[in-house]
Amino acid sequence: QVALVESGGGLVQAGDSLRLSCVYSGRTFSSTGMGWFRQAPGKEREFVAGISWSGRTTYYADFVKGRFTISRDNAKNTVYLQMNSLKPEDTAVYYCATDQHSRFRSRVATITGEYDYWGQGTQVTVSS
After folding, report:
1. For the segment 1-27, what is each residue's pLDDT rounded down to a tens digit?
2. The CA-based dihedral angle spanning residues 10, 15, 16, 21, taken in that order and rounded to the nearest 10 degrees
3. Do residues 117 and 4 lie in contact, with contact meaning Cβ atoms separated by under 8 Å?
């Protein structure tokens, strides 16, 4: 059984930084791709960033390129999302998720249906 626990969210001002963490409980983190999604009130859940099982490939949504960085530490079973230059429009609940088929893909998964397990989410609020 896989479990994901996100942390690191909070209330910050525009221009500030946050680092989200997602701890994975399970047997196969090192062979699992990971992704971050977000969902704002009244909006659909959207892809933010993803990292392949090997860590060699990352992919970002256009609206976070140059500001957010996804990384993983297999020794800690943890994936991170470093968020810099935060904007009010980044306000959302942020979720991490697993892609157990990452080893068989030629790209980082970006669609919610490609992800298997989800965390409970962590709230990020950016004030102007």
Report:
1. 899 999 999 999 999 999 999 999 988
2. 70
3. yes
pLDDT given at position 107: 95
DSSP string, 49-112: EEE-TTSS-EEE-GGGTTTEEEEEEGGGTEEEEEE-S--GGG-EEEEEEEETTGGG-SS---SG
With a CB cutoff of 8 Å and minimum separation 6, the contacts of 44 are none
**Sole residue written with tokens 């904007």:** 87
pLDDT in tens, 61-114: 999 999 999 999 999 999 999 999 999 999 999 999 999 999 999 999 999 999
Distance (Å, rounded) from C-alpha 40 to C-alpha 6? 17
